[in-house]
Amino acid sequence: MTRIRRNLVLILTLPLAALVAVASLGGLLSPNVYAQESSDWTAQAVAQDAVDLFLVVPILTIASLFVFRQERLAEPVWGGSLLYLIYTFIIYGFSVHFNVLFLVYIAVLGLSAYGFIYFMILQHHQPAIKGLIDQRPAKVIGIYFLVIAVLFYGLWLAEIIPANVGGYTPATVETAGLFTNPVQVIDLAFFLPGIFIIGILLLRQHRLGMILTPVLLVFFVLMDITITVILVVQYTRLGTINPVVMIIMSTLAVVSGTMLTWLLKKSY
Length: 268
Fold this sequence. Notes:
The protein has 9 helices and no strands. By secondary structure, it is an all-alpha fold. The protein has 2 domains: 3-125, Butyryl-CoA Dehydrogenase, subunit A, domain 3, CATH 1.20.140; 136-265, no CATH class. The longest helix has 32 residues, at 207-238. The model has no long low-confidence stretch (mean pLDDT 95).
């Protein structure tokens, strides 16, 4: 990687990390930021802010510094963190009432998106993972992706279809006080099909599948931790908890992290 390319990693990432920290601190410290949100949505936003500030910002920053130092296996961690921020700040941008941090949300979304595009350009020229010395991780992780995509499609459709047929609004939308569930929108339209496609590509040992698989596993770990923290905050603030979902998401975080480690150890 040339010096110019390495410098661009920091030029994109350090301002991004600072803006995420500003958005998170604003949400955590200012009661006015989420004043128009429902109690449930506020609890979720506060939990998201805490994860962003204390987990995602450090991981993103450290990963970018390692990428700058040409540590190749840090690149998927950097890319996965950027993908996580794209997903998260689409929700901030479209599903949080207009507030003083709106332009910060948009700046984070834009920098994350362009950072991820730059990550893909770097991977196209020189992928962090060129191949595997053992084909078992590709088979196991590829199947894992297919199962995750199918299960979450089933989970969302099991809520949406009865509501459509019965003519009522799903409970998750009502409780959050939103027009629609933004997570369902992103997942059903883009993310779950993407997981399925990457799973197929990985099973076929396709180059793009190899590039995106560790990125997706990093995303899974961060998102599963986030959902677990959200459930904890909902319990402390609202007294509601779903222990089954908490156990499932915690387990998935461990499984995804284990698979990521296995993949990187078997790569060259």
